[in-house]
Protein 1
Amino acid sequence: MTNKTTAAEVTGASAATVSSGMNRGLTLLFAVAGGAAVGNLYWAQPLLNEMAGSLHISPGSAGLLVTLTQIGYAIGAFFVMPLGDRLNRRRLIPTIMLASAFALAASAAAPSFGILLVALALVGVTTVAGQLLVALAGDLARDDQRGRVVGTVVSGILMGILASRTISGLVADAFGWRAIYMAAAVLTVVLATVLARVLPAIPSRASVGYAELLASVVTTVRRHRSVQVSLVLSAIAMTVFTLFWTALTFLLSAAPFDYSVTRIGLVGLVGLAGALTAQRAGRLHDRGWSVPGTGAGLLLALAAVVLSGTGADAGSIIIVLIAVLLLDISIPTVNVLNQSRLMHVEPQSRSRLNTAFVTGNFIGATIGSVLAAALWQAGGWTMVMTGAAALLTIALIVWAVGRRALSVA
């Protein structure tokens, strides 16, 4: 062994050994902070018409607010998140959260559309604090609790995503759209302050050049077949998830349902039950059932897609809601298990592996959004669900072929 340090090596103690584990209070704090951070991406979605009127722009232009926020998130995922494998996260995470609070406050005070676009892009970049917490939780947790801990933090992130749209609408109805961004800024400052005080001391990692650090994201993925299979499965799962939820708005706003925007938003609350299952999914990993659990999750998602098609044809909102619940149990289960496996592959590269995970999911979500509109126009809900079923079938084939590689992760 040489003394030369590369992006795949760390001198000194690994962060995975600095702690006897994550206690319940710290795990809950990570979940709340992660949910608040990632939830910032979605405040604008139900408020676009109100924001358009306030800023005197067209609804189509207002859609750029969501697009730029998501693009900012993708940029942060690739260019900021890998720093978690190089810098002291006890300082890095609170610093990024304070930057996020500044961007949120700037969004609340933005006097023009252009300034709001820039501010929300920065909100997207700094949202990666939530995913840095996932990787840190993986480092601090013991081997026998890592799946549960990661599952709990990811559950908090999912709940933040699902609840943000509803909270945003309620606050905006009462106080205007700017109020939600100011409230989020205050909450983020509070959480950053608490994290700065309670995060445990973490040993410094070997210095790696930034360019080498970014390049090592790709080389780390290429080094492990289990990582490649997990990333493909997660990306397909996220494609289906986004495809379903985007097209669901089209379905519920059309006959025979003819739901209002408010009622469609309330349907999203059914998904919170699915988010709560993420912690249990992590326990499957801890018990050695990660690979079969992933396959079961994909099969359950396929069943949900078939059921939703049946419910829509029958005009039954009850059947559709059951399908929503099943999908929001199965897809988070698949992704929690995939993410938990990644936390085991190469401990010193967890932030970089999480970078690959989030980037792949972002690509999948983007594809899902595009497919939703195209398939809906081609053949309505039936065509959308046919596409979703085809994607899940491909995922099951990838899972079956890659089972042996996944089992060694």
Note: The first helix runs from residue 24 to 39.
Protein 2
Amino acid sequence: MNPLHGSGDQPGQQTDAPHGTVLVINSGSSSVKYQLVDPIGGDAIASGIVERIGADDALLTHKHAGVSTKLTEPIADHGQALRRVLELFAEHGPDLAEADVVAVGHRVVQGGDVFAGPALIDDAVVAGIEALSPLAPLHNPANARGIEVARELLPDVPQVAVFDSSFFRTLPDAAATYAIPQDVAATYSIRRYGAHGTSHQYVSAEVANIVGRPLEDLNQIVLHLGNGASVSAVKGGVAVETSMGLTPLEGLVMGTRSGDIDPGVVFHLYRNAGMSIDDIDDLLNRRSGVKGLSGESDFRTLHEMIAAGDADAKLALDVYIHRLRKYIGAYTAVLGHVDVLSFTAGIGENDDIVRAHALAGLEGLGYTIDLERNEGRKSDVTVISPDGAPTLVLVVPTAEELAIARLTVATIAEAAAQA
């Protein structure tokens, strides 16, 4: 297999590869998340995170066999972070040698027009990820650094890059194209790439299994609602629209990101507020969204603030819900009809208030919620629409690490078969 062309396997698809575990790594700008996954059984054997990399008080959390180990210590860089991760496995289990680690799977945000699917990592793939950094400056450099360090520490284990954007390469031109001169777009690789694709692909495939219908027969809307949030329209298993664009800034209101905003705001702030491009980048990506409106990005705290009468918190939720409902209506129009709408990710799975507000008043479009079924956090697949509703509404817990693990194994198996 040419690693630049990738595999077309679905995340839930089983492979003929030898049974073993996959270490899934998500290397961010100041953190490293990891999970040891059984790709066949679907179990997370161990997981953890190293936060505040570069600080003297970095936070390390490792979970295994029901025990959570938490440490605070200096972590200088990603190299030291990943070395500590391997030490945590040795100290607190499971031993990676005994766990039969057959591969390492890396989450990478931006694959651009280069990577159509998962790629077996070599020097050329790492260079390709780095070259795409202008399209994801907050993510791809950190992703590439995590890959480099993991290859140094685990040189004998095959490693695979799984790209968030790959699922959305199927977008029709009308959805992927921005209305700017196409020579400019081509020169600077400007188009809608989307993000969270691994989650949208996993959930939409899982829905077909849940309802017992062929994926090809279903029109779906998937709402991935976390601190970062995105919506997709999936027709017959193929993504036809998504809310994130050239970068993960476009689309829904998010924890700290503005989502859709008039581009003229950028010019206005530059010309009249004396803000630099970096200042505006920081404003829209890190200081806006729900946090910018209310001072708080955690929805649990936001609901407490609203209950206490905080008007800013109430406005933040209203703006968040308004944008979400607008996208649901738009994607219903894109698909023509919707068979299943799914909530997933941290807010989608755990916030019954957001779920209820998101679909309130949309009965004319076929969306209704049974308030009793909707109540509370959902750790399992749950139907929250009433019996006989025109559109089935589900909560489907995402499993991005499991999806990455399965795609990793499938990619290695395909490469071996073609060798």
Note: The chain is about 40% helix and 20% strand.
